[in-house]
Design goal:
about 450 residues, alpha/beta, Rossmann fold, Serine Threonine Protein Phosphatase 5, Tetratricopeptide repeat, six-stranded parallel β-sheet, four-stranded parallel β-sheet, 19 helices, globular
Length: about 450
Amino acid sequence: MMTKPVAAFAQYAIAVFHNLGDILLCTPIARQLKASDPDCFITWYCAERYALVLDNNPYIDEVIALQAEDPLLLDARIPQLAAERVWTRFFSPAPYMNIYASLPRIVEAGITLLDLVRDAAGLQWIVPFMPVMRLTAAEVQTARDYRNTLPVDAPMILVETEYDADQSIWDANFAVMLIDALRGINPVFVFTAKNRPAYLDQLLERYDRIYWCDLPFRLNAELFNLGSGFVGVSSGISTLTYSTWCRDNIPRIEVSRGAHWSGFQHQNSRLLAVCHTPEHYSDALKWLGGCIERVPPGPRIDATEEVIEHLAEPLKVEPDISVLGEAQTRKLSRDQALPIALQYHQSGQLEQAERIYRELLEVSALDFVALHLLGVARFQQGDLALAEQLLLKALTVNNLTPEAHYNLANVYVAQGRIIEARACLVHTLTLNPEFSLAQQKLLALD
């Protein structure tokens, strides 16, 4: 009798076949497996039409796209797929999707579908339970180029309006309410959908800064980052906006028919309003408008935006400063304080540098340079967990700076997470093929 060869490394399979939101929701399983065993090999089975959502995922080694329109037919193939190889473990958390009818009872008990996925995986969780999404540099640039075609003197509100699930009460009346409630702040409304919304002409008669965007689904992650607010009506794009790629400081509204699972993990967030009725929605629109008015629109993003090298190359600057106290540095502008912090950092006076970085972050929690350099400083002092957290947050603000990806790779190498380090180095070289330090480190890891 022939036996299947046993691999020298752990091989895991994850079978979640259908729906963009459901697949994204389960991606933390792969991240956790790689965190526990960086050398393991992870295969993901999914329906061909949804495989795009797994592109460029650094934790998945192989995606097998299956052809089938009926998801139930794919569910029936789980025993066959589980027998195809000698798996260390075969994950099929999809059965949690069959409990929608009992959602009210589950919510009342304080249980979310995220809890059900975590429990179904049966893992010891040490990574954040966040959907994993990573765009390519080309995808990011395409999204930013699109944003630059729109008026830049006004906030952009991303509105997701295409869905085929019975999850939302959204209709044309909700779109009209949105326009009428927020037109006073003169925003740009971007209705993102594969098909042009049937009511778009009706809206354009009321307000002219309305655009239909049919860019690929994945690019909504970067459009979300470029916006000032978000209105979602389906679990797919809502889950996308909670992913590792997306900012966490953008106010959002979710319009749902009831217990909308994609927002549960943020149900206590001051930046989320989940609306089950037109009355809830009307109040939420007032709240959203207030949030956007308090934060002016960001600057135009150019393809040639300045990229500063941050401690990736050896430091050559000789500092010529004395130690300034907190009372003195707090009086300085950002343009004055940052060079001082850099000189402290370059001279090894990390405590003083960190203090200024933290002061800058008190003023602006999304200051990319301060987040990046504070992460580097924490790495230099051996605080790998906080260094990773800061660098990942910096990359949600600006993911086109190769030095940030390189520095995150250094953190992963120090943690022994070689698979993730390789992914960061490959991303670094995608952004800058001439980055010699990244080339050398990647060769050393191979």
